Amino acid sequence: MVSVIIFLGSPGSGKGTQASKLSDAFGYEHISIGDMLRKNVEEKSDLGLKASEYIDSGRLVPDDLIIKVVSSFFEDFVSNIEGKVILDGFPRTEPQALALEKIIRELRINLSSVLYLDVDDKEVISRLSERGRKDDEPQLVINRLNVYRDQTEPLLKYYNNQGVLKEIDGNKSPDLVFSEISELIKVEA
Ligand code: AMP
Question: Helix or strand or coil: residue 22?
């Protein structure tokens, strides 16, 4: 059975860092929607051309485009009888969460946990100012944090109600956060 971990958290909460560490340590397939979109922008694919204006202004790319990409990934991936996937940066809106629920049901995927990296805004702003990605300029970070509050944060309640949400203090060092997550994952396995 294919099993999925979702990472939730604001921009700069360490989702990408932790997802990479987990994928190296435990063999998860790491799906970063942001990385995938940036690659498409670089290659000037249809998706990239459509997505770039949203990324560059710190807004979310429209749900229909994102849902299409994630659905086709899972349709290909479930040909694996066993497999472990980390979704880093999806879902980020309620329609995306509902679409994922449908994919999970139809393809008989196991949603093993939703890991929420809770990080203070102050820490986020300091981390992103050091990272230096194009969309990490101060005004865009503020836009992205607002988008996160409005559209993504409601998903915490949605997954908490399903009993799958696990909260982690993401203010700590990457290694400490990683060992906490590893413990949670081992309990699951
Ligand atoms: P990230 O690398 O996760 O910080 O994402 C960078 C940017 O990619 C975001 O600010 C959005 O413009 C876009 N993006 C990433 N994931 C999603 C998603 N699930 N839905 C819509 N847009 C997304």
Answer: helix
